[in-house]
């Protein structure tokens, strides 16, 4: 059997330290709740699979059930396409 992933629109922010960024409300809320936090120059994201790390250049994605997870830039650009800018 073969399956195709259903199209889902996600929200994501590329983590670019040192660059002026406007973060969305979900990012600010997740940080305030301790669901993600800085550790040096990277973000630690608490997931149901355990802590995951977002390094500079990685994307942080909020999923369909408000879960957060990091994605390497190379994988992100091969998997997602922009459908709307702010």
Q: Which whole number gives the mean pLDDT? A: 91
Structural class: alpha+beta
Query: With helices defined by DSSP (H or I, 4 residues minimum), what is the helix count?
Result: 2
Strand segment tally: 6
What percent of residues are in strands?
25-35%
C-alpha Rg (nearest Å): 13 Å
Question: Largest sheet, order of strands side by side?
Answer: 1-5-6
Low-confidence runs: none
Indicate the overall shape. globular
How many structural domains in the coordinates? 1
Helix share, percent? 10-25%
Distance between the termini: 39 Å
Could you state the order of secondary-structure elements as H and E?
Answer: EHEEEEEH
Q: State the major sheet.
A: 3 strands, antiparallel
Topology, element by element:
Blueprint: E1 11-14, H1 25-32, E2 36-39, E3 42-47, E4 50-54, E5 59-62, E6 68-71, H2 73-79
Antiparallel strand pairs: 1-5, 2-3, 3-4, 5-6
Structure report:
With 86 residues, the protein is α+β, with helices and mostly antiparallel strands. It has one domain (11-79). Helices cover 17% and strands 31% of the residues. The strands form two sheets. It has a three-stranded antiparallel beta sheet. Strands 2-3-4 form a three-stranded antiparallel beta sheet. It starts with 10 loop residues before the first strand and ends in a 7-residue tail after the last helix. The model has no long low-confidence stretch (mean pLDDT 91).
């Amino acid at each position: 059997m073969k399956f195709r992933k259903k199209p889902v629109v996600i929200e994501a922010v590329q983590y670019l330290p040192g660059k002026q960024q406007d973060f969305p409300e979900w990012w600010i809320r997740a940080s305030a709740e301790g669901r993600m936090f800085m550790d040096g120059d990277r973000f630690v994201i608490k997931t149901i699979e355990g802590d995951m790390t977002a390094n500079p250049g990685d994307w942080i994605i909020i999923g369909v059930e408000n879960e957060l997870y990091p994605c390497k830039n190379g994988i992100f650009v091969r998997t997602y396409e922009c459908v709307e800018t702010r």
